[in-house]
Batch of 3 targets.
Target 1
Amino acid sequence: MASADSGRFVIVSGGTGALGRAVVARFLASGDRVVAPWIMKRELEAIEVEEAAALRDRRLILVEADVADEAGARAVAAAAPGAEVLVSAVGGFGGGKPVHETELELWDRMYRMNVRTAVALTRAVLPGMLERGRGSVTYIAARAALDLPAGLGAYTASKGAILSLAETVHKEVAERRVRVNTLLPTTIDTPANRAGMPNADFSTWTQPSAIAEVIHWLASDAGATVRGGRLPV
């Protein structure tokens, strides 16, 4: 695995969201080149302001692509030739009803946002890592996938699928010098979460920058011995 300041290509799906922008910023700070897909204009505008210098220098490349579709995932992979790091951080949240009252549309949406995106990117990026004999893949699941709170069946099922995906991929590639790990965040301190839970104790929530540090470490030489991990953050 190359060192953290080697200018390697890093793919961060969900890189224009609140967590994703923190991850993008951390890798850029190490001298890496980052490719991030986008589909939401307001998120694009936010990262364009925050990372204007990196965009000018082409250290950050933003690709308009829906990575739940194979063509979109391939376009992102093509923009990051020789990518050594994949951070699968795109996803969504939804719920609030018992399983028997939850519309099938929500189950489909959670699957598409949280699972299909991760699978499509894995298919697009992993073959190159295996060919080169090195790589780091980090999937973002959720602590809720283990705790299974009532009313979030569609969400927790999709995040549970990420745990299964990551474990399977780890077993398939561990002997080929590609390491796979999964993070299990609790509540992340984002503007959307604050708006949705205004009476919560924000001080107990995890900062996006703290999660970004863990992801960056996992992709570094220092974190190279961690493989197949499920890390609570």
Target 2
Amino acid sequence: MKVSSYAVARPVYSDRNSTSVLNTYSAVIGPHAQTQRWGVTLGAGRKATMEGAWLQVIRITAAAVVAQYNISLNVTSGATTAVVGTRDTWSNTTLVDFSLAIPINVTVYPGEMISVATLDGSTGGTVYYVGSGKITTYDA
């Protein structure tokens, strides 16, 4: 009788029924409360790895009263939200690019969500927002 042990390493995540998810939000809008622009929520038996993101804000027209405006990349687990990356400013100068490339490796677990949200607390004016991300989902 031959007895052996086959200790085989688990396949890397990209080989476990992986799916690529690309999300982008791009718009010129006026003042608004914190608003989620896109999100990916993981179902049971799935995990995800966020491989990179791009966040950008550009004031297009000046605000009458400037306040904070931003775009943020967030991970939510239960009732807790953590900001993974943000591009945040109070500038009222038009056509100045505030951008951030995020080469990250964040793992998101079943029931958690990764999302992009924008905020503009100013009075008047418009801001151009871009929030993009590349996510790979796979079997947990």
Target 3
Amino acid sequence: MRRTIGIIIGTALVFIGISSLSPSKAAEEVCDSSGKVANLNFTLKDINGNDVDLSSFKGNVIILDFWATWCPPCRKEIPGYIDLYNRYKAQGFVVIGVSVDESLADLKKFVKQYNINYPILIGHDREDLERAYAPISAYPTSFVIGRDGRICSRHTGDRPPEQLERKIKALL
């Protein structure tokens, strides 16, 4: 009988401990242990020629995605990014697409065709930015960045939006 009561109390304490995780504790469990801080000290042009400071997104949960219009896995992941952005932007989530395309006209056409509603920035000829997130050996390469600025994960290639959604929800 005592053993049964002990098991019940122990189980209850574990449940209480898990359910009371603070957002920062949840973020620690989702983020890689490296804890590298993302360098957001860059200004890039958007597709309309406006300057955008990456640092203006600090405090949000960010997906920073290096991609190109000619890249099939990049095109495959975009609808998932649009959906995630629509569902979580009000909670402090943003997708930032950094296009490495050469042709601005082609990029604008692509953004319109795919109805991309999150910020698209011009990363062509921005070796300084790519070095800050190196190595970027293939596209897409994306980074999940927590509110505290730490890089929580890095991924090359497309991945199911459900995998990203779990991380995003834990970080929000």
